Amino acid sequence: MSVTTVRLQADVEQHLEAIANRLHRSKGWVINQALSEYIEKQQLEQERWKQTLEAMESAAQGKVVDAGEVHRWLNSWGTENEQDAPRSGK
Question: In 61-88, which ranges are continuous DSSP H helix?
Fold first, then answer.
């Protein structure tokens, strides 16, 4: 495990101390938890952005599905005649 120094604003330090005391954990533990969750969220956001750009590129290339086909597919869910997901024509 490595050591990193960070300067905290006074109000952040107070909240951190209160959370650590309430959880009966060290401030370091709380910081590690918070940073782990933040990093995971950032990675998810980065992946969503990548997928958005890929979807926009696909749409620009005409790889789209008619909205009516999508609605018919969704309406078939849970029925005896459930359909396969529609595919783009390209």
Answer: 67-76
